[in-house]
Amino acid sequence: MSQPDFNIVIPSRFGSSRFPGKPLHPLNGKPMLLHVVDRARESSAKVIVVATDDQRIADLCVQAGVQVEMTDEAHVSGTDRIAEVAKRLDWQDDCIIVGLQGDEPATSADMLNTLANNLSTFADADMATFCIPVNDIEEYQNTHRVKVVRDSRGMALYFSRASIPARRDMKSGSDYPESFIHVGLYAYRCHFLKKFSTLPVAYIEEQEQLEQLRVLYNGGRIHVDLANEAAAGVDHPEDVESIEALLAQRFGAA
Questions:
Q1: Can you list the domains of the chain with their CATH numbers?
Q2: Any idea what the Cα angle at residue 112 is, between residues 227 and 254, rounded to 5°?
Q3: Where do the H-state alpha helices sit in 89-239?
């Protein structure tokens, strides 16, 4: 199957309680956001747009020749920011949009292309994302690591910070059942993305603090593929050294 057309939107905020100014922080001598743009340009995306609410980020994009859209600073999620861009640019309802977070500079082009292809292949899916296997009991029990349970076609049944699936009988087998960690990278069908931004927050979303549960609560379908690698993001200043090494290893980034 040929690679479907798709667009990439990169939501990028300057404000961060854990790492203020993160998108502009240099990694191997270049602002983090421009590494993310490089990953997007290495993919087969037809259009690449940075969505921000900060003029400093917009100025960097203009200087680097990157299309940028100023979005509402009141947005509480990257998905809402992506939806605003899709509406403003009047993208067609059947357009596939991949959201690439502005703090994930080591996400491979292969992952971005695969995500768009998966959404195109599974016609009944409204969104697509990834997961990776749980490797140890600590990861299985870690509430900061979001788990996902899938059906036989790879469609999400539920996402949770809890340890799912839970094993009733712990007398046999390993310390934990087969389980998967969600990798927070998404592709959206444009018509569903526009609908999502109008839906009220779901109770389960509020309890788990997972916006993808709003999709399932309202009858949406999310395809979850098994990824070869995890998306590597930057959450804290302490992550900089390791992500610089990873960029050098994967992309020869300088």
A1: 7-251 (3.90.550.10)
A2: 100
A3: 109-121, 137-141, 190-196, 203-208, 212-217
Give yes or no for a contact between 115 and 223, defined as CB atoms under 8 angstroms apart: no
- The pair of structure tokens assigned to 221 is 């379908």
Find tokens 């203020």 and name the residue: 20
- One-letter amino acid at 223 equals H
User: Measured between alpha carbons, how far is 231 from 111 in angstroms, rounded to an integer?
Assistant: 9
Count, residues in the chain: 254
Q: Which of 87, 154, 104, 128 is nearest to 4 (CA)?
A: 128
The reported pLDDT for the residue numbered 1 is 55
96-99 and 7-12 strand pairing: parallel
pTM to 2 decimals? 0.92
Q: What is the largest CA-CA distance in the chain?
A: 61
Q: Is the dihedral of CA 101, 107, 110, 114 positive or negative?
A: negative
Separation of alpha carbons 236 and 213, rounded Å:
26
For residue 171, is pLDDT > 90?
no
Q: Is the dihedral of CA 170, 208, 114, 121 positive or negative?
A: positive
Question: To which residue do tokens 């509020």 refer?
Answer: 206
Six-digit token string for 40: 């997007």
Closest CA to 60 of 27, 87, 23, 97: 23
Tens of pLDDT, residue by residue over 192-229, are: 999 998 999 999 999 999 999 999 999 999 999 999 88
